[in-house]
Amino acid sequence: MTARLIDGKALSDQIKADVAERVRALKQRGVTPGLAVVLVGDDPASHVYVRNKAAACEKAGLYSQVIRLPADIPEDQLLDIVRGLNGDPDIHGILVQLPLPAHLNAGKVIETIAAEKDVDGFHVSNAGLLMTGRPLFRPCTPYGVMKMLESENVSLWGAEAVVVGASNIVGKPMAMLMLAAGATVTLCNSKTRDLAAQTRRADVLVVATGKPGMVTGDMIKPGAVVIDVGINRSASGKLVGDVDFESARKVAGAITPVPGGVGPMTIAMLLVNTLEAAERSAVPATID
Ligand code: NDP
């Protein structure tokens, strides 16, 4: 058996085309969705991500503003810049590219973003809303995974879902979204005693650890849907996931490739979140 490939590139193109259509409609009502991306320092990978985000915005007709700041910017200055964006009516979404230089408190910076402009969904209020089943912004990567499962008609209702990796930006919100969709969710971390025993139970397995190739075919239930969130650069410069693709594809029913799987979905969902923030801001005030 060879697993069906889940094509994140094609699905993300479809979502972006849909966003472009909705942006056109919103512009006719006088609102252009605007995203501000704050980039501190000169981490090369962050520069690439930010460039890609800005290019995707432009292509879909959104306004984007990239604010590049020196690595040694004092924290209070950065917080003032974020507060300025909170009050800017042309900006509907604010994203601070992580990781931040060590002298900056990432939690404090994210908590300074107005929750209604927090298109990454990392603010504690948005994490709390997601946990209590009233999401405002779903974090882009797990949101993209949910769209992929939906497009593949994978039913989560009553399914065994296992998430390997429990970060605030991927694993934990992923678990919450699948739980809300009716799955029985197991969330694993680096202390999980027998990881293979957990992963082998999964009808849907999501892996987000940053450990290249750590989930191998023998850890997968035959026919399972395997979503590989990992993006790692191998010694030869190739992009590889957290799942060992060659052994996994022989066992899984469906699998995402790296690259071309979850990666493109993350940017597409960022556009969706920014568009929806702008749509919400454009709702005319009702007079009681
Ligand atoms: P973090 O480093 O923040 O978290 C990694 C998680 O994996 C932790 O919970 C850690 O456990 C767990 N973990 C590490 N090793 C093991 C192990 N051997 N067994 C079980 N669990 C383990 O990573 P992120 O969530 O930020 O990113 C994960 C991966 O996803 C990376 O490859 C990253 O590049 C990629 N990524 C891809 C995105 C995309 O757009 N496709 C977006 C964001 C990330 P513990 O909590 O115990 O430390």
Average pLDDT rating: 97
* CATH fold category name of the largest domain: Rossmann fold
Distance linking N and C termini:
62 Å
* Helix and strand element order: EHEHEHEHHHEHEHEEEEHEH
Number of domains: 2
List keywords for this structure.
single chain, 288 residues, alpha/beta, Rossmann fold, 2 domains, 6-stranded parallel β-sheet, 3-stranded parallel β-sheet, globular, binds NADPH dihydro-nicotinamide-adenine-dinucleotide phosphate
What topology does this entry show?
Elements: E1 4-5, H1 8-28, E2 34-40, H2 44-60, E3 63-69, H3 75-86, E4 93-96, H4 106-112, H5 124-131, H6 140-151, E5 160-164, H7 171-180, E6 184-188, H8 195-199, E7 204-207, E8 225-228, E9 232-233, E10 239-240, H9 245-248, E11 254-255, H10 262-281
Parallel strand pairs: 1-11, 2-3, 2-4, 5-6, 5-7, 7-8, 8-11
Antiparallel strand pairs: 9-10
Helix pairs in contact: 1-10, 2-10, 6-7, 6-10
Bound molecules: NADPH dihydro-nicotinamide-adenine-dinucleotide phosphate (NDP).
NADPH dihydro-nicotinamide-adenine-dinucleotide phosphate binds next to helix 10.
